[in-house]
Amino acid sequence: MALLHQRAKLYQVIRTFFLKKHVLEVETPVLSNSASCDVNLDSFATSLRKDGPSLYLQTSPEFAMKRLLAAGSPCIYQIAKSFRQAERGRFHNPEFTLLEWYRLNFSMAELMDEVAELLSLCFSSELVIKTMSYHDLFFSITGINPHATTIEELMDYASAQGNPEAATICGESIANGLDYVFSQYIQPMLLKEQVYFVSHYPVCMAMLAKLTDDSPQTAKRFEVYFNNVELANGYEELTDADLQEMRFQQDLKERELAAQAKVPIDQNLIAALRAGMPACSGVALGLDRLLMLMSQAASIDEVLSFPVERA
Amino acid sequence: MATYSTNDFKGGLKIMMDNDPCSIIENEFVRPGKGPAFSRVKYRNLKTGRVIDRTFKSGETVDAADVMETDMSYLYNDGEFWHFMDEETYEQVSADSIAVGEAGKWLKEQDKCVVTLWNGAPLSVAAPNFVELQVTDTDPGLKGDTSGGGGKPATLETGAVVRVPLFVQIDEVIKVDTRTGEYSARVKN
């Protein structure tokens, strides 16, 4: 019961925070004609009618919100139920709640500052913030330069750490290898009670982020870790329709290689980008995990009214 | 042979790894950033007792291990093997000293214990948490000592040696916690 109150209070804090900043609360469809192409994301699929066209539950409200931005909306936020198939564990429920927001003309750095501001408000205390580039963090612990590594080097490192099976998990993908090494050997080393903002990801992990112009080129993507928990993922958003479509096509190829379900690219998003999406930065923050951290819960089940097995 | 997928993994599940029967201690689902989902699993090799950390691709399957924990009573030791009997079926099994391990020094005939069987053969034996054993040898204690500050070694009827309070005398029966190997109480006859 205490957690029901805590969640309600948290939503109040969030809504007041964005009201003061003139960020508009919006609602977008949970069911969509298209799905995320991300090779490591599986959408729940259903259909409009029996034998009708497929519909997919959103894995995040990102695409629909970007379409609103392209259509001329101001800065927007949403508290959105999101769904990811086969994700269940201490930190995962297949149905979960994201807080996602977009800020027009914000750089990645400005958005990171705003995330820190909101987190301090949620925990009602000044948090210790540590900002590090992905490269510096990765290199300091593994001695590997993530911008110029190979899948072989990453898998050799995992083997040396006692995980030769990593190769079967990561396949040929450098991005998978980087994510594996990061979650196995770097994430557990992060200091407790500190909020880590990790930014400037390798280009192969750009997803929907803009790239920098410097050398080596990096993706303007950041992740937030607090008490070893991955809490948020943000981008200075890619606005180039052609480039985004190319990345989606690349994702679909990887899905095919990995024998993942075929999904349709969100052509509405591509069309919106083509019509012109304003420069902006956006971030998705897991509210269930935030509640876990605020209440020191050991499992996501503790902060949900009913976890999936009892839903 | 039955198989389990990582989705079935939970504490206590018995699986085959590297041709040895193992018991899963814990399983954590991990999906890093935008990366591949996997399971971070801790399991114990039931033959060697070693605890191993390993990751599994999400959905990967492994063979089930035919491991059963059975309540049995200890019958006797013939010098080489320890003999146990299933109290329901009256079936008997014999275990070597490797399988019996530490439990051997606590077992008295007729004691109830849990024998872990792998493909029907004893893999390990767990003594009851508490056993009552007679002291066969210990130094005479000091008169008037009731708390037993430092204690002294005592040899029990099974050959095990435990530290006991100074007031414990030869022929007395004591209760021992087999998990810690420590004296727990004196048993009044």
Plain-language structure description:
- The complex is a heterodimer of chains A (311) and B (189).
- By secondary structure, chain A is an alpha+beta fold.
- Chain A has 2 domains: 176 residues, BirA Bifunctional Protein, domain 2; 100 residues, no CATH class.
- Chain A is built from 10 helices and 11 strands.
- Chain A has an 8-stranded mixed beta sheet with strand order 1-5-6-11-10-9-8-7, with helices on both faces. Chain A has a 3-stranded antiparallel beta sheet with strand order 2-4-3, with no helix packed on it.
- In chain A, α2 packs parallel to α9 and α5 runs parallel beside α7.
- The longest helix of chain A has 19 residues.
- Chain A is globular, with a radius of gyration of 19 Å.
- The mean pLDDT of chain A is 95.
- With 189 residues, chain B is mostly beta strands.
- Chain B folds into 3 domains: 61 residues, SH3 type barrels, CATH 2.30.30; 60 residues, Beta Barrel (OB fold (Dihydrolipoamide Acetyltransferase, E2P)); 58 residues, Beta Barrel (OB fold (Dihydrolipoamide Acetyltransferase, E2P)), CATH 2.40.50.
- Chain B contains 1 helix and 16 strands.
- A 5-stranded antiparallel beta sheet of chain B has the order 9-8-7-10-11. A 5-stranded antiparallel beta sheet of chain B has the order 14-13-12-15-16, with no helix packed on it.
- In chain B, β4 and β5 form a beta hairpin.
- The mean pLDDT of chain B is 90.
- Classes of the chains: A alpha+beta (311), B mainly beta (189).
- The interface between A and B is medium-sized, with 33 and 21 residues.
